[in-house]
Structures are given as C-alpha cells and as structure tokens.
Design a protein that fits this description.
Helix content of chain A: 40-55%
Distance between the termini of chain A: 65 Å
Strand content of chain A: 5-15%
Strand order of the largest sheet of chain A: 4-3-5-6
Structural class of chain A: alpha/beta
Radius of gyration of chain A: 21 Å
Number of strands of chain A: 6
CATH topology of the largest domain in chain A: Dna Topoisomerase Vi A Subunit, Chain: A, domain 2
Number of domains of chain A: 2
Largest sheet of chain A: 4 strands, parallel
Oligomer: homodimer
CATH architecture of the largest domain in chain A: 3-Layer(aba) Sandwich
Number of helices of chain A: 8
Chain lengths: ~200, ~200
C-alpha cells in the first residue's frame, strides 16, 4: 500500500508477536517521525541482542556470558532448584524476592498440539544437573494451565525415583482478588489447598 | 531487571506507541530467539526508513522522492483536493478507490490541549497550493472527532473568501452497523444528513 521502505518496515513490524497491522503502521510512522538517534538506538538494540545475548549453558536463562548472573552468584542456595518454562518466568519469580535458590528453564511446556514433546525441552539437561548438583528440592513452577500442568506431572513421574523432593507452586485465589470473580477451578484449588491458620 | 542488552531492547521497545512493558518483553524475547536474518531485516528496515522516507514537498504525504507517487501521477484530478490529518488517512482513502483527486496532509489537527495551533499544521502550504493549482473543490476529510471538526470549521472559515467549493465528508451510520448500537451523536448526524432516495 505504501511506498517501498515504509511498507517494508510495516511488514517487518507486523511479524512481531502481538503487533497487528494497525499497530505496525502506527509504530512505523512513529519511527519515521522520531529523532534519528531514537530510531538508531532501537535498531542497534535489536542487533546487539542478537550479537550478545544467549542462553546460560547451565540453566538456559538469558545471559551475556556462558553462565547467567544467577548461576554465577555463589550466595544462591544450590539445594533449591526451581523449574520454569521461560526465561521471563525467572524474572517474575525474582521480582517476588521469595526465592534464593537456582533455576532451570525448560524452554517451553509439553504441548502435543504444538508438536512440543519432552525431547524439545531441556529435560535431559535437568536430569544431568540433578546428578551433578546438591539439589534437595525441585520446585515445579510451570504455568498453572493445561500444558504447564502436563509438564509438571510428566516431570514428577520421571523424577520420582531420584530421591529428590518435588514440589509444585500453590494454586489458589490471587491476592487482592474477589472470591466472587474467581473461576470454579481456581476456587476449587483454593479449597483443596487450604491451610490451617496459625500453622 | 534483565542483564544489559536484553533490558536495553525492552526499554527501547517500550517507548514505541501502544507497546506496554509486557509486550516489549515478549517482543524482545521473540527477537532474541528469532532467526538472525529476521532480526537483522527489522533493524535494517528501521534504519532504511530513517534514511530514505521523507514527506512529499507538495502534499506532505510519505514519499521516497521529492514528490509522492500521487503528486507525480498525472492522471489524478487536480481540481479535487482532499485535506487529511495524517499520511495514514491518505492510505485509508486510497483503499476505498472512490477518490481520484490529490491530497494535502495537515500533519495533525488543531488541539489547544496538546498545544497544536494552526501554525503547527501545513495550512500556509495549503493556501499556497490553492493559489498555484487549479483546485475547484476542497474536501475536508479530517477525523469526525472534536479536534478534526474544529480543524475543518477553522479551515472552512479561513477559505470561504477564496471562491473554492469546500465540502466535508458525510457523518452517519457505519455500513454494516446496527442502528441500535449507534451513539446518539452519530445517529443524530445520520438524521440531519439524510438523503432523498433515488437522488
């Protein structure tokens, strides 16, 4: 529709996740009218990420070195290992400041529909780590949806003979939420996972 | 939150219009994991747009030459001039294939709240074009919102002594819409703008 370069940019932006044709057009016009230095910084940031960011060789978190900051940090508790689907889940858990152990990023969840089986995930590497590292508790922090639950139950069956304690994040009512607005499954989980007060 | 380059990219993406922190993170991870050639194409498209795309010297549409394709096209009717707010409005009108005249892009609409007065828009250039070109009808196609209406009424008052016919796009019910769902102002406009059938 547009002439050459601006249409090329709209096409490229439209391939990004969550960016529809209207947003792509809006962003393209924004960039076209932005300060050259601002547009240049974005283009450079994309190139730099491709050149410098990779996955941690141990836990598959994002990293600029062979091992990520968390794996390099000697103060982290090596007996606790938290298994997550994606590197962004590591950041979400880090923001809680509740967890001082280490992570293992699977790179997704088991999803037959999307053609993702156990072999597509970093599960073999997880088992190798359990051999090499002094892990006592493995916390399965995959998402509380169908794929995440399937992955967690696959892993718990796979690991039951290894003698490591396997736990799963609690499901229940979100803090600050309304009981009235909770879906039945969440409310049911909140019931079955109820805890004694003062415990 | 993240290490160096990926956080830089998230920050840069978060500055784009309509891209919130979550989308920025999602896009950054997508780019990090994309094929290097795909990411490179996006970075190049941004740079190329800044280097090659500019505004048409006559109508302020986007262009890669001094004059845009529409201004260069000798088959367009020079007696009809359609005034729009933004270059993307030109594309929207072109898609209708209803209009074979030329355009003039104001570069926005009068909006005192945003500090945009007539002097910030390409209005002086419009008046110069009315002197130089054989325009017989000026179609005010600014948006049917407060700013667009204000701009249209400002222009119609400014141009009334020039002897050129000034028209405004019709407001009314959207085609395919439900009368029931139309807001009162739109429905009111549809009434006041009603046309005789068979006319």
């Amino acid at each position: 529709m547009y002439e050459g370069a601006i249409q090329d940019l709209i096409d490229e932006l439209g391939r990004l996740p969550g960016v529809g044709p209207k947003s792509a057009q809006r962003i393209a016009f924004h960039l076209m009218q932005a300060e050259p230095a601002d547009a240049r910084r974005l283009a450079d940031a994309i190139t730099t990420v491709k050149d410098t960011v990779r996955f941690c060789a141990r836990c598959f978190n994002v990293s600029e070195a062979e091992h990520c900051r968390i794996c390099q940090d000697q103060r982290r508790d090596g007996t606790l290992l938290c298994v997550v689907e994606e590197a962004r889940d590591v950041q979400a858990i880090e923001r809680t400041r509740e967890f001082r152990g280490r992570y293992h990023v699977l790179g997704g969840a088991i999803s037959p529909i999307d053609g993702v089986g156990p072999d597509e995930l970093h599960i073999a590497e997880l088992i190798r780590r359990l051999d090499d590292e002094p892990v006592e508790e493995l916390i399965l922090a995959t998402n509380p949806n169908v794929e995440g639950e399937a992955t967690a139950s696959y892993l718990s069956r796979l690991l039951e003979h290894l003698g490591v304690r396997v736990t799963r994040l609690a499901s229940g009512l979100p803090v600050g939420g309304d009981l009235d607005y909770a879906d039945e499954v969440t409310l049911g989980r909140a019931f079955s996972g109820r805890r004694e007060l003062g415990a």
